[in-house]
Design goal:
- The longest helix is centred in the N-terminal third of the chain and has 29 residues.
- The protein is of the alpha+beta class.
- A hairpin with a 5-residue loop joins strand 5 and strand 6.
- The protein folds into 2 domains: about 80 residues, no CATH class; about 100 residues, Immunoglobulin-like (Sandwich), CATH 2.60.40.
- Helix 1 packs antiparallel against helix 3.
- The strands form 2 sheets. The protein has a 5-stranded mixed beta sheet with strand order 3-9-8-5-6, with no helix packed on it. A 4-stranded mixed beta sheet has the order 2-1-4-7.
- Bound molecules: copper (II) ion.
- Copper (II) ion (CU) binds next to loops.
Amino acid sequence: MLDFLFSGWGAFWMTLFMLLPFAAVFYYIVRRKSVVDPSPAAAARAQISRVEVGWIGLVLLVFVGVNLASLKYMPTLRTAHANTRTDIQNVDLTATSWAFDISSRRVEAGRPVRFSGRSNDTMHGFAIYHPDGRMLFTMMLMPGLTKPTSLIHTFDEAGTYKVRCLEYCGIAHHTMRDEIVVVAGAK
Ligand SMILES: [Cu+2]
């Protein structure tokens, strides 16, 4: 049942749920200040003024608007969305000091790739770098897990992408490199 919390929408509802106490405190303060204690204008009507309602409305509108607009950039939702695609490419990899064993070093651009990684011995990292040097993502590979660690990424551009281990794993950690070739998608 708890698996739901680790899905895209589960994470979304959980985040909203965690914001509830803050909303309650915010409401309590606003209500107390404008209804229960309207001082220093003690003679003012014991109601929330239109200006205050307007401000609260504006704040809520901006809050909801910004959250909705940024929803599609949430990694969990992107992953959940990519998981529904049937053309996903699977790449399995195993890290062993000090090399990667990668099931396929050639993937297509424009289609999501699910990287599922395991470690055979100690903590390793699996990071992919864009040909221009930018790091796109990194994932941590822990030994002894029953499920592989997985991450979904869609490459936009063809090219040779460098792979590096970013968890210090011993004397030859710096030699733990590899490459993934991204080819243009067939369209
Ligand atoms: Cu390493």
